[in-house]
Design a protein that fits this description.
The protein is of the alpha/beta class. The protein is 36% helix and 16% strand.
Length: 371
Amino acid sequence: MILIILLLFTTLIPTNSNEFIIGGYLPEYRFYIDLPSTVAKLNTITLFSLAPNSDGSIKSFISEMDLKRFDQNDQTDAKIAIAVGGGGRSAAFPAISNDGALRRRFVASLSEFMAVHPYITGIDFDWESPSSVQEASSYIRLIAEVRAKLGNSVTLSVALHPDQFLPSYDALDFVHLMTYDMRNPAGHAQFNDVVAAVNNFVVSGCPREKILLGIPLYGRDNVGGVATYSEIVDMAIDDNEELNVSERLPTNWRTTDMTASGIVYDGIQSAQRKAQWAIENKLAGIFFWELGQDKNEEHVSIVSAVRDVVEKGDRLTKSQMASKINEPRESLVKTATHEDVGSRRSRRKKKKQEKAAAKKRIRNKIKEVEL
């Protein structure tokens, strides 16, 4: 059996492109976003997702109508991939990967899906998560059989958590390393934790040129709170709608990565720092989870800021790239130029109070005139 698996690995070895990848996941519940402007910033889009059924067939969570939006798409040259599995969508992987008949049906189901959707040229496996060495080996065998069936014309990748090592990466083109939700009290995607996770994977045998570093477009606090980057921006902007969004944010919004309420996230500079580190350390690229969480505004979008580092060469200085693990973190609103930057509710309340006070002053003046 081991010999068969090795033969599957060695008969079809994937080839990697030298292009630095800027990728992102697009779940089925985010298809309402401005797709043309979003995908134009990327060179790989991973649609999320398909799920394996217990009988080896597959289920699509994306409607056929939404899938067809990427057929003959002249808005972008981005490559389109489809994810298989994911959180809450992986229950059938253990049985399928360990049964020859189920594996064959699963491979045939994927092959049929790819034939019907030829504009999709990649498959991203996301079993969350194998619970033993045996399951991890079965997972690799399943991927190797997909490679043998589809050949090198289809890009195969796998999404892995920082502690989820595989016995081999030979049948894979890329590894999407999910360097977030790492549960560090200082933040779930801290730069030093990300660097350590990548280095651990390289030591485990994963070639660095196959690794894509994951950048979250959301933040977490220490008590279970979560907010998307878009929500964080919306909470921080003031009410002057005559200015663009970037002009309505606190002065330190590009360089900080924590809100006043303690939600830690990847701000502009944090995300750019990770992308630049990935370039300097010869990784395959970066990816975002997930695209609908970005704030798609000029000079505010995280995806756009990272693209500028990759494509325009807008690099950070040595000082900006240096580790700041022992320095106190500055919150998003501490150095704001507007005293009332905070929640929308508090700003509206203050605005109403100011209007009421102004009306009262006017009424008092009228009374003085009448007297």
